[in-house]
Amino acid sequence: MAPITLDELARTKQLLVVSDFDGTLAGFSTDPAAVPVNQQAAAALHQLAELPNTTVAILSGRDLDGLRAASGFSEKSFVLAGSHGAQTSEPYADILASPCLNDAQQQALAAVSEKLEELAQKLEGAFVEHKPFHRVLHTLKATDQKGAAALLAEALELDIPGIHAKPGKSIVEFSAVTITKGSWISQAQSYFDASATVFLGDDTTDEDGFAVLGAGDLSVKVGNPQVETAARLRVADIAGVAELLTQLAGLRTQALG
Q: Which residues contact 138 (CB under 8 A, 6 or more apart)?
């Protein structure tokens, strides 16, 4: 079955547009706080957000404060969701209630933190990011790519009860909660009474979001065409995301005109 067209999406009653941030709207950098945001994509999202019956959300693995700082997107125009949906900006925080970690979860995060810090010492450039519900081993700054791959593989072998590990681009992320981008999108669809949803993403965690979308929605995988995906459409890169969003914004503006 062919994916729904942008023209069909533009005419839907209540449109929900959700985008990942890193690798989808912004390029990568060894400084996570200074990633290059594609300005064409940002402009298209602002245009969409200003339209009636249209909601735009940025759904990221970054924690909420980090997403605000790096993206430059404001809650005045967008719904911001960090930590894969475990944190949502006001006034939409009740889309999916932010969990409270119990003692066992906090102890599990502390245990994985200790293990990851030990691993990071093995490779120059590796470091551990501490987020409210996650711990992330990063190797993007490492110059020894073979060593980085080996370190990430070793991290994936860690077995800590109550902690879930998932690989990504130059990372392995460990979570103490079960909230995913898919569960957040499902709740957001209901919250905003969306008649159609667009979700764009480039990494492993975005597959959870693609999986919950139906035939009347559009899932868009960004990047490597060799990687298997549940998404129904592919674009080559961030520039492709910008073009798609620009087209959608123009068509939606015309449809609501």
A: 126, 127, 128, 129, 170, 171
Look at residue 237 and give its three-state secondary structure: coil
Measure the CA–CA gap between 172 and 256, rounded to whole angstroms. 43
To the question of pTM greater than 0.90 for the whole model, the response is: yes
- Is residue 1 assigned to a domain? no
Which amino acid appears at position 239 of this protein? A
pLDDT tens-place string over residues 183-237: 999 999 999 999 999 999 999 999 999 999 999 999 999 998 999 999 999 999 9
Q: What are phi and psi of 134, to 5 degrees?
A: -140, 160
In this structure, the answer to whether residues 94 and 14 fall within a common structural domain is yes
What are the tens digits of pLDDT across the range 110-159?
A: 999 999 999 999 999 999 999 999 999 999 999 999 999 999 999 999 99
121 and 85 in a single domain? The answer is: no
Asked if the structure places residue 196 within a domain, the reply is: yes
The CATH number of whichever domain residue 137 belongs to comes to 3.30.70.1020
Q: Where does the chain show beta strands of DSSP type E? A: 15-19, 54-59, 79-82, 87-88, 127-130, 134-138, 164-168, 171-175, 196-201, 218-222, 233-235
Q: What is the DSSP string of 96-153?
A: SPPP---HHHHHHHHHHHHHHHHHHTTSTT-EEEE-SSEEEEE-TT-S-HHHHHHHHH
> Quick check: 219 and 197 in contact, CB under 8 A?
no
Residues 107 and 153 in one domain: yes
